[in-house]
Design the sequence.
């Protein structure tokens, strides 16, 4: 049993004792160390991820260079094929022109040089036939020195 005097109260606990401040500082230090460990782990994960990304970036750069080289080669091949195609088109156009000229020439020849139909006639009805064997046809007279 404790003796209490009238008019005296119990003393309240001290709020700012050094030991309490030290315990709070230790607890805060422990929390800060935990946060520091978490930050270090995060930094390590980020560094690993950064290394992976750099490796991936290098691979992508190589793939990009390979693709660009292939694209340049495809462009060269395309240009060569277009030149070859142009040459073939010129040859086709030249042959078409030749065929058209030949067809036009044949059409012009058939139009301008009709072949007359010759009907055979007996020799005695020929226009140059005569009953006098010594007489020379007037068309032949030019060539005959005796006439």
Sequence:
């Amino acid at each position: 049993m404790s003796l209490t005097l009238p008019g005296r109260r119990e003393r309240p606990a001290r709020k700012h004792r050094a030991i309490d401040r030290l315990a709070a500082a230790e607890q805060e230090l422990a929390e800060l160390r935990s946060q520091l460990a978490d930050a270090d782990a995060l930094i390590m994960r980020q560094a690993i991820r950064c290394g992976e990304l750099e490796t991936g970036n290098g691979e992508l750069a190589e793939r990009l260079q390979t693709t660009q080289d292939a694209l340049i080669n495809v462009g060269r091949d395309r240009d060569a094929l277009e030149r070859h195609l142009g040459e073939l088109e010129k040859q086709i156009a030249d042959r078409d022109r030749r065929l058209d000229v030949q067809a036009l020439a044949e059409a012009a020849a058939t139009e301008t040089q009709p072949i007359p139909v010759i009907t055979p006639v007996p020799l005695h009805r020929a226009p140059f036939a005569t009953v006098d064997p010594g007489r020379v046809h007037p068309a032949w007279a030019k060539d005959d020195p005796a006439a």
Q: What stands out?
A: The chain has two helices and no strands.
